[in-house]
Specification:
Strand content: 15-25%
CATH class of the largest domain: Alpha Beta
Number of helices: 11
Structural class: alpha/beta
Radius of gyration: 22 Å
Helix content: 25-40%
Strand order of the largest sheet: 2-6-7-8-11-9
CATH architecture of the largest domain: 4-Layer Sandwich
Number of domains: 2
Amino acid sequence: MAQQASAGGDEKYRAPIRQRLNGLFTDRALHEEYYDPTRDRIVIFSDHHRGKGDGADDFARCEYAYRAALGYYFDQGYRLFLLGDVEELWEESKAENVFGHYESVYKLERDFAKQGRLERFWGNHDLQWANLKQFRRRLAPQAGVSHIREAMRLKVRRDGGDEATIFLTHGHQGTPDSEKWAWAAKIPVRFVWPVVQRLQGMSATRPAVDAMVRGRHDRALFAWACEQRNRILIAGHTHKPVFGNASPTPPTRPPVAELEEQRQAAREAGDRDAASVAAAELEYTRATIERPDDAVEATPPTYFNTGCCAFPDGDITGIELADGQIRLVRFPAQFDALDADDGSFDPEQRILEQADLYEVLDAVAAPADPPQLIIRPVMPVEP
């Protein structure tokens, strides 16, 4: 069943989010710079949740893909934006434990910083970096930057003299567990959940552990982004990539009945290999029907989400602004998933979704239809 967001919805939940984001967006002291889509290149990652390398560290399995991504983007001349929740400081009481375990990762990020190509933002799980004294004494030497931001405005000049704004922030603002009651929310995260993770080997890509909460927050961010023309929002926090369609449409599979017939025919013919292939495809198809992924359709395309660098399978996702395009990209834990047919690395395989940035900005300049965000299950086949 699709869930649709329009002008109504959960106003009680949205109101404090709107208030905080409005205040942040209109703050005259907020850093602002011009972005040239034909020349400038930016990659945006968020929600690493780095720990100290133990069983409670959600970033540990993603380190391989993330380091590969940094190697690629550094030589390609990208700026690197880290959009918050980089360090997991709700679980870890000492950031120095994180710095020590991931020294090689911080060195790669400092390489960007040395060339003025690193921007750090803070989120709710690394909120202490909003304290300037804490930031300068502890994080700045590790990150190699002299400043950290809550948000930023990128201004884009459009044909005809209009300007559009790309607004970047973590996206937790206005939620009680992330701000007003953050001190209380830390207690189970620091003292209870890590024990469960270490014992069970479970991953917690907080705060997106609850699909209903995640969907409600995506709708709130989208609703805010739609309230003003010539504005798009790029955020993190929910760990759910959003890019028109949040998940690439899976390949079309034959109907279950057809696959059952294929398996039965192969079994009757004594062809064990063919029967096993049909059985594998049959169970894959049944799983996609029973456990469909969610896709997010945003009209107009005012809201984009990076996803995260803490997926349980070791993959990472992010958003690129480059070559006149806006892209949703993935670097997988199994790096050969990016190989071309000849076995060589093909960087184009990283792109999950892309769109012409000027066309996106044109769409949000004067949207033809009422804004709507639909969250629906992806159904590759009929049962």
